[in-house]
Amino acid sequence: MTVKNKLTRNVFYCYFFIVVLFAVIRMLSSFDVFKPLGEVGEYIINAVIQIVLIFATSIFLFSYLQKSKIKSTLNFFGFKKINFKAILISLAIGIIVYILNVFVASFFNSILSALGYNFGSTSSEGGYPFWLFIINIIVTAVLPAICEETAHRGMLLKGLSPMGRRNAIIISSMLFGLLHMNITQFFYATLIGFLLGHIATISDSIYPAMIIHFMNNAISVLMGYSQANNLGFDFLFTYINQSIANNALVGFIFILSLIVLLIILLKYLIVLLFRQTSAKKMNELQDVLFKEIARGNYLKELEETARGLYEHEIPTISFEEFDKLYQNKTIDMGHATDLENQIQFGSDDFKIDKVTKILMIACFTLASIVTIYTLFWGIFLW
Predict the structure, then answer these.
(1) d(CA 216, CA 238)
(2) pLDDT, tens digit (0-9, with 9 covering 90-100), for 92-133
(3) To which H or E segment does residue 15 belong?
(4) DSSP string of 203-254, one letter each residue
(5) Euclidean distance between CA atoms 182 and 186, whole angstroms
(6) Domain boundary assignment for the chain
(7) % of the chain beyond a pLDDT of 70
(8) Residue 324, CB half-sphere, CA atoms under 13 Å: how many?
(9) Which residues, including other chains, have CB under 8 Å from residue 29's CB and lie 6 or more apart?
(10) What kind and span of H or E run contains 255?
(11) Is 79 left (phi over 0), alpha (psi -120 to 50) or beta?
(12) 31: Cα separation from own chain's centroid
């Protein structure tokens, strides 16, 4: 089996395991099996799902199947450091993504409402204390940002790279939306998955995606806390709702203008993020390669001069020599792993095998069944 085929098959072995167990837990939860555990039990189950099922499986089971060290797996998944400017840009993108996500979620929820979907009650009896806010930040924002991104923008996105960048982003995004196994989250989670997949690819690091994911979820928790305690942090959305109520046309124009402005700003920030991550790394690598080639040519000139063979011709380097030098330097500088170089420079053609294809279809099918089940549950059984 080729390196590429082994990689994609191992990815779907791991992800199929995640999907099956998560589907079982999701179905048990829908029948109130965990209800006797109370609210604390629910938080514990969510934490176990994130840490043990999603994160640990993605890291440890993948490493075991690939016969690689944990550090190598983390590097391959994109755990590559970014500078402070890239962190600030990612935080700003996270804020924009949250605002856009509100509009996207509202649009799809209106469609579900038209179909008769019952969203249930989200009110919390007994108030919303600060300690519960902190727990929600940890369980709803911190853990998903780390664990879900490790599985989707790490294992899936990088592990499916032999299929091509576009296919890897599409498949990982669709599965990211489906793994929520909730029809109300599927639409916006999939769209966010596309964006995060693109950002993880152009930045060559998983950290920006983690930061954006965290910001989106954390602001959502903050808005819920603000509404419950009348803190006023949700003033923008209150203003928009009032504008629509007072004048639908003015409200629509305002929302449309805001969305266009945010998309333009988002594209600009993504370009800035690219310049602070991949572009900067490429410039650093280029300088190192040029210096190494110049050093090699200088030594070659000295050797030929000493032997009386130097004829003042411009020394050249073959493509094979350059590829070897490039691969060695990317590994030395931490820009790529040996597995990444094998995928990029490997001569073997990739064609998805039957076992991998069956596993992939099974992941999509099972997650889709549970997601569709939540749709019918909300319409007919709630």
Answers:
(1) 19
(2) 999 999 999 999 998 999 999 999 998 876 555 567 899 999
(3) helix 3-30
(4) HT-SHHHHHHHHHHHHHHHHHHHHHHHT--TTHHHHHHHHHHHH-HHHHHHH
(5) 6
(6) 3-276+352-381, 277-351
(7) 90
(8) 5
(9) 45
(10) helix 248-276
(11) beta
(12) 30
Q: Cα separation of 236 and 98, whole Å? A: 12
Give the number of C-alpha atoms closer than 13 A to the C-alpha of residue 362, restricted to the C-beta side. Answer: 16
Closest to 25 (Cα-Cα) out of 41, 61, 49, 44: 49
Q: Over the stretch 180-207, which tens digit does the pLDDT of each residue have?
A: 999 999 999 999 999 999 999 999 999 9
How buried is residue 43: exposed, middle or buried, by Cβ count under 10 Å (0-12/13-18/19+)? middle
| Nearest residue to 16 (alpha-carbon basis) of 154, 192, 175, 183 | 175
User: Which residues, other chains included, contact 50 with Cβ-Cβ below 8 Å and sequence gap of 6+?
Assistant: 139, 143, 144, 146, 147, 148
How big is the chain, counted in residues? 382
Residue found under tokens 């490493």: 63
- Buried b / exposed e over 185-204, threshold 16 CB at 10 Å, is bbbbbbbbbbbbbbbbbbbb
pLDDT band of residue 303 (cuts 50, 70, 90) is low
Distance CA 300, CA 296 (A): 6
Residue 160 CA: distances (Å) to CA of 69, 80, 338, 359: 19, 19, 16, 13
Q: What is the mean pLDDT of residues 321-349?
A: 79
Q: How many CB atoms lie within 10 A of CB 209?
A: 31
CB 356 within 8 A of CB 5: yes
**234 contacts: CB under 8 Å, gap ≥ 6:** 223, 226, 227
Which DSSP symbol is given to 165? Answer: H
CA-CA distance, 138 to 124, in Å (whole number)? Answer: 18
Q: Amino acid identity of 252? A: F
